[in-house]
Amino acid sequence: MQDVNIEDLKNIIALDGLADEHLQWILEHSEYREYADGDIIAKYGEPAEVMWISLVGTIVFYMYVNGRQVYYFTFENNNVTGGVGGLLPYSRMKTYPGYSYALGDVKLLRIHKKHFAELELLNPDFIQRLISYMTERAKAFATTKLQHEKVDALGNLAAGIAHELNNPAAAIRGISDELSKRLNLNYQFTETLLECNMTAQHIQKIRELVSQKEIGKQQNTKLATLQRMENEDELAEWLEQNGVTQREAAETFSEYEFSIEELEAIRNDLGPMAFKQMIPWLENLVSSQKIITDLAHASDRISNLVGSIASHVHMDRTNELQPTDIHQDIENTLTLLGFKLREKNIEVVRKFCDELPLVPAFIGELNQVWTNLIDNAIFALGQHGILTIETSKDDRNVIVRIIDNGVGISPEIKSRIFDPFFTTKKVGEGTGIGLDIVNRIVKRHNGDIKVDSAPGKTSFTVCIPIVQKPA
């Protein structure tokens, strides 16, 4: 060993105040190691068997997460780590969960775990000090893990929302192109109509008929596919008999439920030749109107999604309780998680209570509860699963039950699901907040959360008071 003496050890914060004979014992039961900048000090998966004491330098630790190294912690001779690391007494670590690297030149003393029992007999207070450093290290690791999970979860949610926005945005682009083409065709068809000597009265009658069809399309139940195809074939045959060979006209008129009798009335009014020239114009008119309706729906979809995001994160949040509509909050959450529901073709069953009262809440926080519980249910469900959301009320509470028909929670972990940082998901698969924080949010609202689970049915029940007691 290089000439390391008791005075060197007195500079280590974790060893501060130890008797000289105890420091001498450490020197006699440890081995000395030097590392250059970038050297691996501990490797993922190797047995964790030694505690190290940092004489010189800094060590950075990267957790191994799903095939990649993620920065977690820095070990230095400071009040946070005390200058000690590796396997500490009473640690349950069996193998290293990541990689430790030297940052600059590093000099360590390494004590094998076989000496821990003797060290405890020598100085029990020092062991307790090491345990406190280990506890603080565990807290720091857990906090960093939570932060990484939140970032990954936020990234996944953002990607899903981007996908949700991209669908109507792409539809709007396609609609714009089609509408531009239709408007250009309108010039051509209008010229043809003028050559047929159509009058304003003729156009007024057609306009009234088209308006009736638009209203009927909004109010009537959509025809079954087979019925619509039969109507389309009948219209195509009739139009062809009258000199109109474009199948597109039959498709459009069938969708808007034009009847042969109505088209015959137009033909009799205009005459056979003018009717033949008018049909492409009428088809273009009706299709353009349909395109504009589709454009409005796509725009509404974007507006609704943006509104759901704003409401969900509660952009106007304050530090005070505010009344909130639980049903609307849940609908917003379902909108934001819609991409996950569709990926698994999950059926959402709503059993909402009539006249559910508003409840006072920290709205942004309470929305995290619905997000986490619904996301967990989606995670537990397979393809074509069923997610049921029930709401009810009693004299004091609003009650929300989120139920899935997945495999259930195994008895071995059921008692731990509300423990801090406990999860069965990989990083990025969850919402990043965990059921421990869900429980704390519910408790902050003076509410209660319970879970019942069996194969085929897992139910989380949340009770939130209708009236909050003054703080």
Summarize the structure.
With 471 residues, the chain is an alpha+beta fold. It has 14 helices and 13 strands. It folds into 3 domains: 6-122, Jelly Rolls (Sandwich); 167-305, no CATH class; 317-465, 2-Layer Sandwich (Heat Shock Protein 90), CATH 3.30.565.
Structural class: alpha+beta
What is the average of the pLDDT values? 85
Compute the CA-based radius of gyration. Answer: 35 Å
Strand content: 15-25%
Query: At the fourth CATH level, what is the homologous superfamily of the largest domain?
Result: Histidine kinase-like ATPase, C-terminal domain
Fraction of helical residues: 40-55%
Q: Can you count the helices?
A: 14
Counting DSSP E segments of at least 2 residues, the number of strands comes to 13
Summarize the main sheet: 6 strands, antiparallel
Task: Quote the CATH topology of the largest domain.
Answer: Heat Shock Protein 90
How does this model look, in words?
- With 471 residues, the chain is an alpha+beta fold.
- It has 3 domains: 6-122, Sandwich (Jelly Rolls), CATH 2.60.120.10; 167-305, no CATH class; 317-465, Histidine kinase-like ATPase, C-terminal domain (Heat Shock Protein 90), CATH 3.30.565.
- The protein has 14 helices and 13 strands.
- Strands 1, 2, 3, 4, 5 and 6 form a 6-stranded antiparallel sheet that branches.
